[in-house]
Amino acid sequence: MAQSYEGQPVRVTNRIGDKPAPGQLRIIQAFLNTANPKVGREDFISPEVLKSWLVENSLLAPGAHVTGVDVRETIAVRDALYRLLDVCHTGKADPDAVKTLNRALRSAQMSVLFDDQGRSHIEPLASAVDGALGRLIAIVHDAMADGTWTRLKICRSDDCAWAFYDRSKNHSGAWCSITDCGNVAKARAYRARHSHAHDQHPLQH
User: Fold this and answer.
1) Which domain holds residue 178?
2) pLDDT tens, residue by residue, 94-109
3) For residue 87, what is the domain's CATH number?
4) How far is CA 19 from CA 155, 178, 180, in A?
5) How far is Cα 121 from Cα 141, in angstroms, rounded to an integer?
6) Nearest to 150, CA basis, from 94, 91, 76, 70
7) DSSP assigned state of 188
């Protein structure tokens, strides 16, 4: 979908792939995939692009103002969530990621509220981008509570880093796509093994 802010076209792309997460966690999956640190891709290149993505995902009101500071804070929160997901699977603590997320939660003024059915949930009291980031972190909180967070993974392919949802019964998924990344990784390993064997036993002429 294309939108326009201040005369400049803004392309909104939700990067999900063929292994989408369920429910609201899909927004976090798309959020994480707005960058690829292994190839240097960054989608949030301007306040206009960030605003377009947040509005598209119902996280921000269309009339909200977005600044360069908001872009930097959003990228910091996204990268912290990326590292937090890595902590989930490696068990290695990342104090800086936790510090960044806690700072964002304070700015979002998170509060526990009850809905009409008497169910509790957390949501931000702050408006604009601070509130939008609070809503994203609240989705992660809910995913941790229902067990779906641990199924969100980062592809192990050396040049991928794509966030995908692992639906395997034993949580053994390692690549974002068996057709693409999985086969690429297997082919790379195959070439490496045979190259090593050739170096050890070169053909005699």
Assistant:
1) 2-200
2) 999 999 999 999 999 9
3) 1.10.3300.10
4) 11, 10, 12
5) 10
6) 91
7) H
